[in-house]
Amino acid sequence: xxxxxxxxxxxxxxxxxxxxxxxxxxxxxxxxxxxxxxxxxxxxxxxxxxxxxxxxxxxxxxxxxxxxxxxxxxxxxxxxxxxxxxxxxxxxx
Length: 93
What we know:
Helix content is about 75%, strand content about 0%. α2 (about 45-60) packs across α3. It has about 90 residues and is mainly alpha-helical. It is elongated and about 90 Å long. The mean pLDDT is about 80. The chain has helices spanning about 1-35, 45-60, 65-85.
């Protein structure tokens, strides 16, 4: 009987330790997610917005219209670059 009580007590202590570990992780995650950027926007909100917006941007640029508009933009930029109207372009080859 005493052995069973000791086992139960040991199991309860292990459960308590595991619960404390989870609570510490949750607290650390909450603290990390509450961080604000210099502009005052919470980092978590910015990441949520990026996850929402990225698939829409990708879909647009994969569409015919998006590809056409991107090509037009490239042509405009190249023409402006030849005319010397574009400043501060970094070329990546």
